[in-house]
Amino acid sequence: MSKPYKRLDKTQAAVLMVDHQAGLLSLVRDIEPDRFKNNVLALADLAKYFKLPTVLTTSFEDGPNGPLVPELKAMFPDAPFIPRPGQINAWDNEDFVSAVRATGKKQLLIAGVVTEVCVAFPALAALEEGFDVFVVTDASGTFNELTRDSAWRRMSEAGAQLMTWFGVACELHRDWRNDIEGLGTLFSNHIPDYRNLITAYTTVKGVK
Amino acid sequence: MSKPYKRLDKTQAAVLMVDHQAGLLSLVRDIEPDRFKNNVLALADLAKYFKLPTVLTTSFEDGPNGPLVPELKAMFPDAPFIPRPGQINAWDNEDFVSAVRATGKKQLLIAGVVTEVCVAFPALAALEEGFDVFVVTDASGTFNELTRDSAWRRMSEAGAQLMTWFGVACELHRDWRNDIEGLGTLFSNHIPDYRNLITAYTTVKGVK
Amino acid sequence: MSKPYKRLDKTQAAVLMVDHQAGLLSLVRDIEPDRFKNNVLALADLAKYFKLPTVLTTSFEDGPNGPLVPELKAMFPDAPFIPRPGQINAWDNEDFVSAVRATGKKQLLIAGVVTEVCVAFPALAALEEGFDVFVVTDASGTFNELTRDSAWRRMSEAGAQLMTWFGVACELHRDWRNDIEGLGTLFSNHIPDYRNLITAYTTVKGVK
Amino acid sequence: MSKPYKRLDKTQAAVLMVDHQAGLLSLVRDIEPDRFKNNVLALADLAKYFKLPTVLTTSFEDGPNGPLVPELKAMFPDAPFIPRPGQINAWDNEDFVSAVRATGKKQLLIAGVVTEVCVAFPALAALEEGFDVFVVTDASGTFNELTRDSAWRRMSEAGAQLMTWFGVACELHRDWRNDIEGLGTLFSNHIPDYRNLITAYTTVKGVK
Amino acid sequence: MSKPYKRLDKTQAAVLMVDHQAGLLSLVRDIEPDRFKNNVLALADLAKYFKLPTVLTTSFEDGPNGPLVPELKAMFPDAPFIPRPGQINAWDNEDFVSAVRATGKKQLLIAGVVTEVCVAFPALAALEEGFDVFVVTDASGTFNELTRDSAWRRMSEAGAQLMTWFGVACELHRDWRNDIEGLGTLFSNHIPDYRNLITAYTTVKGVK
Amino acid sequence: MSKPYKRLDKTQAAVLMVDHQAGLLSLVRDIEPDRFKNNVLALADLAKYFKLPTVLTTSFEDGPNGPLVPELKAMFPDAPFIPRPGQINAWDNEDFVSAVRATGKKQLLIAGVVTEVCVAFPALAALEEGFDVFVVTDASGTFNELTRDSAWRRMSEAGAQLMTWFGVACELHRDWRNDIEGLGTLFSNHIPDYRNLITAYTTVKGVK
Amino acid sequence: MSKPYKRLDKTQAAVLMVDHQAGLLSLVRDIEPDRFKNNVLALADLAKYFKLPTVLTTSFEDGPNGPLVPELKAMFPDAPFIPRPGQINAWDNEDFVSAVRATGKKQLLIAGVVTEVCVAFPALAALEEGFDVFVVTDASGTFNELTRDSAWRRMSEAGAQLMTWFGVACELHRDWRNDIEGLGTLFSNHIPDYRNLITAYTTVKGVK
Amino acid sequence: MSKPYKRLDKTQAAVLMVDHQAGLLSLVRDIEPDRFKNNVLALADLAKYFKLPTVLTTSFEDGPNGPLVPELKAMFPDAPFIPRPGQINAWDNEDFVSAVRATGKKQLLIAGVVTEVCVAFPALAALEEGFDVFVVTDASGTFNELTRDSAWRRMSEAGAQLMTWFGVACELHRDWRNDIEGLGTLFSNHIPDYRNLITAYTTVKGVK
């Protein structure tokens, strides 16, 4: 009767980053800019860290929406990048869907700007086609909290699971012993409080 | 097991604007007045832009609830306008239901004041009769957030999909190439940040 | 697949006011005291206005929880009043359940303090026995918003419908023409903005 | 011992609009975009309505800061417009100061983006030169509330008076009878609640 | 060097209630309507309780601003009531100033709608003429918190003291023994938490 | 069709406290530290009061995550305590699962830090194995409200019931008469408002 | 020209705790109960730790205001305790003023409930008599933030310095080396985050 | 009568960074961690960019307060760094004061953790000695907003000017033409919205 537990598996997951464009980012007001930038880069870092196939796409990037933010372009030089000529729902673009299918993965981690359009539309379409959809909510932004709440509800009721980048990283990693250094670095770079814990710990450890 | 993805289709959708009256608007305190006015007019503009059949109605407008706001009256001179003599639920008024049915549309976009009554009651009734209901949450207002949250939950659990005007516009339009100018103008008129993107873009484009 | 639309019917509804006691009220911090007092009295007024059978109960009122607030006692001198000797869930008290059953009503409007206990426990029990439960969320209070949100979710997922007193009044009344004066007075007494609309309207109407 | 009451006088006042540029506006996050746009246009409208000399300036507008928003350019075609080649403090630009002095006014109404720089710097400089400075706080925006509060305190302690556009309009107008229609229109165009009051009033007045 | 302590004295104080009109009240959004209504009535009640001379005034009440709220009219049938024909600053109306002077009091308690105009303007003017001004901040309302903060700062820097109705009542009363019953009733009627304390106390006291 | 009412039963319930570690606690920012500390200790106290079998576990406690907070260690000297060598999901640790199974209980009360990982992962796993899961939301903390909301939704949709420690205590206790003193002490120690009620009550009771 | 720097000196300071009574505490809603209780006890602990003479007083404690909270009574068995028979301003009570004078201290640390009355009135009176007044803002509570802000402004403009208990402790202590253990314990008992730092630090230190 | 305009001058200014230590940072809860980290690093970057002499200090760094965050240590390898053995007020440490005096600067930019102690104490002491003090409010953090507001008021009334890092950078730079590239880089690295403006601008500029 309840939604079953779909557990993220690093061999099954792909990341879709949808419309993180320089212009569109100025529309995001449900998350502070410093935090949002950090969340998006954290998701990108974890995609690389876990070697998840990643697909990038933009909407109408030769107009006011602006180009994909350069950091993402630089981090995924070899990832499929599909600048859509006009389709608002990325899933309406065949190249994008092909790129997603080509990853061979069933679990899709989706993030984008703005949440109720660039995330929700492909998420709903992917669910309809039988993919398991995990929305990375804190790497997705929109106009305000009212808009976000409406969008979350729509996706969630359609079967999507709402997660944040930290939860995704933890569910993919499973066990610290797989790579303490690597996961610690990811957290240190994107969670100031965690970085401070590490600094304090290693200092005392080292000094004594 | 999950709620299926109902995708808005401009050939299938009608807009119902319920009780946006000068008196009742002073009750709305879950959205700031400047933003709320903008959202309501944005929904009206998109209804016209996509040529969606639109039905207007008011509750007891010869009393303190006050008249329909003049902007809406002026924008839809030929739309069916049903001033209800007393029914609180617009769906209890036969003329209103007939007007809705006469549109021949299955997808109903509903907005109104106040959310838990003027929106929720006809939304629940329409769902019961098999319509697909999309609540335009940000063009609907009420007393406070507690009230709104209760209302959203009730409608959503009954099968309504919660959207905002921007999401509606994007889902109806499907592809920028259908009319770049038109959609851009709609956004420019109702999203200050988007207007600024366009201004900055066209200035640089033109100056260089 | 969705929760069906249960529509409130004044011939089918009863009101349960659970533990609105002088001591317990000091625990309520998710709604401001002026507003909460107003909401509780509004619910009481509407119970009287629609002549809904009403059942009052208190928890351990000879201790720190304190007595039922005197206004409620005064408004319902003939209503069944069940001071529970110890049961925390009112539904565990046979006198209370008998009083509820004796109303002969199927639709239960429940409000109380605190939401996650005094409201949620009898609400869940009543749902289990087949009653239709409508929680009057804004006449129910608790420690903070986190607590409230948890409680709402639990009740709502068990089948309860979340409403506020204004929505309840409107759904019960159905049509202004049933009694314009009466409903207007109820709103004027409990919604300052509505009272102002009436004042402004009648002044202009009368002066001209 | 206290700051003396400087009363705005429409024969003594000039308006300085500093750096309301398309790019810089995306930095404003202490006021919602819909409201901020409205406030800025309201200030511009009142400047025109009271025929106050107005000076416009921009900072480095050929770069990312972007052009002056077109609405302002269009509303003040004959006003001095000083695009500063580099000075961050407009008061460091001689053309700007000359334009201000040329107005012959002693009371300066200043608004701009961002508050702690584009508003505060010229405000402090003008105070030092003996002008009476009135900061129009709600037509001035910045990164967040912490930044705003710091800036307000600095200006206020230096002798500036903090006002909002509505207070400015009222203090300049002095008496409704000077022009009921004109002031009413200004308010109706920029205060949705006031517009609704007028709509409701005139409807009842006219219908009876 | 600091602002001296002006202590309220019931033989020296008068109350000025400025523009609490049915229309204007819909503009108040910095305080919730239930609370604001309560605060205004609490101030009126304390004016009566301490027998402070009270002056009422309205701005342009035959238009959209609407009439003085009827409760105030009813509570002060014999108080001077000056409907101003057009002056926005009540202090520009000679009848109003005469009525204030006729009270023979030096300490003025001022409250009104909206704070930055109807309160601030007469407050600043009265300070200039040497009155001691006490703004009753919680019985004064305006558009939003940004506006309120600007207005408070302006008045406070000009020498006004900011108080709330409860502080005013306590400073005027000085000693519970002057009239325990009377002050207790005032608090019980306007502070729900205090009413509950009294209910709980007297119940235990009486029952034991 | 709705989620059935699972009622907590003190003979059926066990408590799992997951990763309340000195380092990890500095990550919690969705609940204030004073309140969060109180909530965690309240849950521990109720576990002891109702003699519920309790299982403690930590994640990688020899690193920056830090040790289990000493209060918990001291309160449950004989409880199974499983410091996990690396598994992020406690349910992936066989010792932990064995300890849970060894309690012989079907109803699991889970709290931990951080909510979306240390609570959500074992909660989802336990649900899958047929346990009834009750998340103690206010004794669980995480980075911010966005993260919390995502996590609540995921667990709730999978079948977990969201409760707070106070609701848990009340549902387990059932009837004040089972032990007035004991429950009163629990509340007095962890709810300042309740403590004040008791103080006031017993004082009047005793003095009269 | 600015307010001079008065530095707290443990040989010059006394603590006045005004009206922290069981009933009155239920009025405090500008600070959460868990935090407020902690702050008040932290102030009491620091008074004891630095051996500052402390004066306790209550207002009308045989009525609904309730008794002094027992913790304070227990912590200061030998301190002067002046239950005022009726004076609202503690400074109007000769015994209280005598007790303050008897401390021989010039620097008064004042905290109480409610801020704008029980704290502000004696603070203003003491300033007038030449004492240096330090308001411990976070151990003082009132109805809401609007009320608090008004009160802070009034006291601050009259010459009071606003501090919080942590700042007071640090300014009195001057140098950690005076007593590392003692100050650390004070912080550990009242700042959960600091306690965690100590736990983590000493654990690593000890284990290595 | 007002506080005079002290204008920052890059030849006159020094930066004091007080107690930005890994442990103490976990106490900061009035600014989000992502933003706070960014603000602190932005201040450090601007100190380097404008070549301002910078003094670093820590409080008791061999205990739970933890070491200076490594980023700061790395950025200022040659700056005076004074780990204080115990003095809480850095100004009580002679080495620190000597280091400040050795800069030969009169304008001190101070930031630190926590605001009401590590910033306020040396700020007040420096003011007393005739320095011009500029508090960099957004690179200073503390427990909560109540604490911050008290601290701001105390420093501001003693003569300090409250600024934020962005305002500081702009006031020091004076004119974009002094170094467009340099200032742009500083903003791009620490203001995500500004970075997006630059990206969008240069993309259009370059592509056309």
From TrEMBL, chains A, B, C, D, E, F, G, H:
Stretches assigned to the Isochorismatase-like domain: 14-165
Any one Pfam family match given in the protein's UniProt record, by short name: Isochorismatase
GO terms for MF: hydrolase activity
Upper classification of the organism: Bacteria, Pseudomonadati, Pseudomonadota, Betaproteobacteria, Burkholderiales
Protein name: Isochorismatase hydrolase
Protein keywords: Hydrolase
Gene3D superfamilies cross-referenced by the UniProt entry: Isochorismatase-like (3.40.50.850)
CDD domains associated with the record: YcaC_related (cd01012)
InterPro entries: Hydrolase_YcaC-like (IPR053152), Isochorismatase-like_dom (IPR000868), Isochorismatase-like_sf (IPR036380), YcaC (IPR048239)
